[in-house]
Design a protein that fits this description.
The protein is mainly alpha-helical. Strands 1-2 form a two-stranded antiparallel ribbon. The protein is globular. The model has no long low-confidence stretch (mean pLDDT 91).
Length: 118
């Protein structure tokens, strides 16, 4: 990222932090997956269950997004000793740190829908 002469350093730093955040949370599904896992933290969340309950997501896309979230330490993957073998996903403590952001997006989304309907 090129720094402009009249660009305060904190602005450039903030823009870089924003880019990092957008890289992690980008796409149609990542925030929905995180929200799903946070709101079902006490449940066993297998791949099949998640695919069934997150409407519209394909197995291929769910796999890709879960791998990305796991690589960014937001989601934990655990193989279950079942036959056939199944996999359980859970939100990490670090992943829970996104809850405030996601809840604000939900609140804003509700207000936005009302705004469009008025």
């Amino acid at each position: 990222m090129k720094t402009l002469k009249n660009d305060p350093p904190e602005c450039t730093g903030n823009l870089m932090a924003m880019r990092d955040s957008l890289d992690i949370f980008s796409g149609k599904w990542k925030l929905l997956i995180i929200y799903y896992l946070i709101s079902r933290e006490e449940e066993v969340n297998t791949f099949k269950k998640m695919q069934r309950e997150i409407t519209g997501i394909s197995a291929k896309m769910l796999t890709k997004e879960l791998k990305d979230l796991e690589a960014n330490l937001l989601v934990h993957r655990e193989k279950l000793l079942t036959k056939p073998v199944s996999v359980q996903y859970s939100i990490t403590e670090y992943g829970k740190s996104a809850a405030d952001i996601i809840n604000r997006l939900v609140d804003w989304g509700k207000k936005h829908r009302l705004q469009l309907m008025s």
